[in-house]
Fold this sequence. Notes:
The protein has helices spanning 161-164, 178-184, 343-354, 391-399, 449-470; strands at residues 5-11, 23-24, 31-35, 40-46, 49-56, 65-73, 82-89, 92-100, 111-121, 127-134, 140-147, 152-159, 174-175, 195-202, 208-215, 219-228, 231-242, 247-252, 255-258, 265-268, 271-275, 279-284, 295-298, 308-314, 323-328, 333-338, 380-382, 385-387, 402-404, 418-424, 433-438, 442-447. The chain is mostly beta strands. The chain folds into two domains: 14-192, no CATH class; 195-369 and 376-471, Methylamine Dehydrogenase, Chain H. The strands form eight sheets. An eight-stranded mixed sheet has the order 2-3-4-5-9-8-7-6, with no helix packed on it. A four-stranded antiparallel sheet has the order 1-32-31-30. It has a four-stranded antiparallel sheet with strand order 10-11-12-13. Strand 4 and strand 5 form a beta hairpin. GO terms for molecular function: actin filament binding. InterPro entries: Integrin_alpha_N (IPR028994), Kptn (IPR029982).
Amino acid sequence: MTMRFHQRRFFAYLSGAPNLHTLSFVSSQSYTLVTTDRCVSLLSYGDAGYSLYKMEVDALRTGKADVVASAVIERPATHQSRIAVAYAVGDALFLQILAPHHEPLGKEDGAEASGCGKFELEAAPTCMFSVRAVGSNGGVFYGVMVCCTDSMMAFGYIESRKDISTTDSTAVCARLDNDQFAAFFPELATFTHTILAVNIFTSPEKDQGWIAFGCADGLVCVLHGSMQQGCLGGPFKMKDLQLNGPVTSVALFPKQKKTTKESTSIWCCNLLVTCAIGQAVVYEDLYSTSNEDQTSEVLVDSDTFDSIFAGITADIDLDGEVELLLGTDSQVMLAYKEGAGDDSNHAEDATTNSHVDESSSASPTSLDSSHNIWNELETISVAGEEVHPSATESSLARRRKWQRLARSQWDLETFGAIYSLLWRDINHDGVPELLIASSTGIYVYEADPVFVIDKLEHVLAALHTSSTTAQ
């Protein structure tokens, strides 16, 4: 069945132009952060449907300030979260901490915000993201990491165990000094690469997690640690990868793999990386001790574009397994699904066709890319007849582990260069929506209800059959 999505809303940007971090996921809140070079807005869903409201920030009212980045300080459930906005006024750089007032969101004039601190920055951030870390004394830091060209800074609140469980917190937003930073983030204290992209994944059991950094020099650094008091911490196992060209996005999608022991499984770390030079690479089982288990594959046709701006994982066909989505500079969105068949054969072919040598600076290439991506690899209808690709082309497509979905399976159309993608349930109906930030605006796509109901009926039928068999 075709994976069909319908556009439910389109929002023109309230002010400014998008960037690679325009859409920001906020795990503890019911809104999505939308950032352009002129403003920060909140995308949410309520009684009136989808809404986009511009945050009224005093420093941005004059129109002379340029927004550089933004992120959310996600505090404990007993405290209100904060939004950190980095902006430039002339040569001066500032970080403003804001408390959004959710009550006025029904008004058309925007969402009000009050200031909770303002800091001067020495350098422009290249990336900002939310962090939580446990200190040696049991205190927890809730804040944002501000990544600059050759350094990192952290701003936020250090909450004691007592403060976390009460609403009467005395913590004040501050910048961590060098000693505090090294205590909370020892692995990052000496990290000097320019970070452009970040992704964090926590296992469903909440016992371990991974964080991936994509850098301007093509380095990708992946850290695997354990969860302590709900925070991802060390000691970390680190894995470095090298691409040619700046990394535009990283997306972790670890999977469970059964072990030789009965009824046991382990998590294997898989990673999607997109590059500004126009390619996307999938790395699988990064921490495996066996070289045969570590595979990499350049996604077919991803290197036919000048740039790949965004890459995410999303279960678009609702079968429990993630697909890979790529946003390009040519208003084309590519979707990939893991092929059926023997995994070992797929892994072998992927390694043969498009292996990435981690010790080499050579840029990987997709050897079987087609210049017209909607041409050779797809079935074309001519005068009522179906014309299929040649046997050689079909065989080549089957050998790859990740296969690009044909137009007949992936019918979503977009307009403008695609800068940012997000897959999350913002209307709280149990099915995630696909958010697209293109050069023309924000698109909200919902899965086709008929498709969703059909999937649900199949699941219910399978459960009924299983329960009947068990009896």
